Every structure is written in structure tokens, then in C-alpha cells.
Amino acid sequence: MKLSTRSRYGTRILLELARNRKGGPVQVSAISKRQGIPLKYVEQLIRSLKQAGMITSMRGPKGGHLLAKDPARISLGDIVRLFEGQTDLVECISSPEKCEMADDCKVRMAWKEATEVLYQKLDAICIADLIGDNQVSPWKPAC
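^ thats the sequence. predicted structure below, dont judge the formating
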């Protein structure tokens, strides 16, 4: 699986908001500049993150965006599912009818298990882990 820029940039936006959460709302222009993401793209991703309940917005001259959740409650798995959907490594996992050998295919089962392990790992890594806020080892489930 290759992640889209939506997943990668969405993660960077959340990291930026998490790092600055004690300083109040962060404006889109500041996120764009610090993360090197085009302003229009940040605005588009912010809408998706807001609809998913991961961030909130404040209007006005001192407005901007804030995390709506504790960074320990936002996993990489959440972000990937938001921007990619539940992506399987091979199409026949979610659509077995597309493969005539799907019912008795050992390789399909291996791909299915690998997909599950991938998402278990992504679900075990939180934004708080990536900014160093969790006291737990960053690669052990803390979310």
C-alpha cells in the first residue's frame, strides 16, 4: 500500500496542532508555512479532519484550528482510514468475487493477515506518541 499525500499531510497537520495545542488556535497560513504544504491543500484537509471530529475551528482575528481530541486518542490508523478508507493490500480481500480462486486461496489469507497486522500497528501509534507526550514506549499500544 502506498499512502496518498492526503494521509501524510493530514498527519503532519495534526502533529502541528498537537505541538502547538497549549498556544491556542493555529491559523491555516502558519500550518502551511511550517509544514511546507500548499495553503489550499491545508484548507481542504482541515475540512476533512473537522468533519471527522479530530479538529475544531475558532473564528475571528485570533482564530484558527485546534485539536478536538486528546492527541493520545488519535491514531495513525484513524487518519489512514479517514483519507484512504479501509484499504486492503489486495483487492480480493474485500471483493472476493473478483477472483475465481478466492475461496481456496492461501495467498489471499496471507494478504488478509498482513493487512490486519498493518492496521493493528497503525492503530497502536498515536499523535501523542509522535510528539513525545506518551510515557509509554512510542511503539507499544497506548491509544
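Residues 106-123 form the longest helix (18 residues).
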